[in-house]
Backbone:
């Protein structure tokens, strides 16, 4: 049977780059966020007591239906190992554990000021193309955009809370945190840690020729460059475009960098 694992974590933190690297292995299938997580949540909701016909479903049937969602979505895949990507998978680890006992979750993380900075750069670069991230609204300021991003239901805030839930929720054995800073400066170390975490045989990845293009998707989202991956992995030092008070506001939120805040057994690379 095909093995399945999950890529999750925070936005603008390297998940697309990680998928681009993983797919170099001919045994692996990986890509940008898929519709599976949304379909999964919709099915769970429809099978709940809010639907009067849920009376005819038991948990065994629910599990079979949800597992069938994955089986059918990837039915045409010839890969031996599939990585499905969504920022919400961190919030579904208990369900993942029930459905796929051998599955693991790789969560990409990054310091919050640089995530907000990354989105703000896209906004300032695409001045004539309002982004779906902000409901295609051309107005606002760096402050209103930052507030929207880190809100409880925002692009950054929601997955950040899910990440914390995953880290402190008793499933650290299934979770590996990959820091963007490490992935961009020492990708060989990150890939070695991932292969060890998954129990997979090592593979020689090419960090100088990375190929992954979803330009059409980004343009339709009004955010060209959202999933752009440079052909060569490497850090790109730059000054932030955020005002100093915003940098200070989010500067202490990377809990995974504080040994006193990292739960026992949680692996961080």
Residues:
């Amino acid at each position: 049977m095909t093995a399945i694992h999950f890529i999750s974590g925070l936005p603008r933190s390297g998940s697309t780059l990680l998928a681009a690297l993983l797919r170099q292995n001919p045994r692996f299938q990986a890509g940008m966020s898929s519709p599976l997580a949304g379909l999964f949540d919709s099915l769970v909701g429809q099978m709940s007591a809010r639907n009067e016909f849920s009376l005819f479903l038991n948990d065994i049937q629910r599990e079979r239906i949800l597992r069938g969602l994955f089986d059918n979505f990837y039915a045409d895949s010839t890969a031996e190992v599939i990585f499905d990507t969504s920022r919400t998978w961190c919030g579904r680890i208990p369900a993942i554990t029930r459905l796929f006992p051998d599955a693991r979750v790789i969560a990409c993380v990054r310091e919050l000021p640089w995530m907000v900075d990354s989105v703000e750069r896209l906004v300032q670069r695409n001045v004539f193309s309002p982004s779906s991230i902000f409901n295609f609204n051309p107005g606002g300021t760096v402050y209103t955009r930052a507030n929207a991003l880190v809100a409880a239901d925002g692009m950054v805030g929601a997955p950040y809370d899910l990440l914390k839930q995953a880290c402190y929720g008793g499933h650290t054995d299934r979770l590996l945190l990959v820091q963007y800073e490490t992935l961009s400066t020492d990708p060989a170390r990150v890939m070695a840690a991932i292969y060890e975490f998954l129990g997979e045989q090592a593979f020689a990845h090419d960090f100088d020729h990375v190929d992954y293009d979803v330009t059409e998707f980004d343009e339709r989202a009004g955010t060209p460059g959202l999933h752009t991956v440079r052909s060569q992995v490497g850090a790109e030092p730059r000054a932030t475009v955020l005002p100093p008070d915003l940098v200070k506001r989010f500067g202490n939120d990377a809990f995974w960098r504080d040994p006193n805040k990292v739960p026992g057994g949680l692996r961080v690379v």
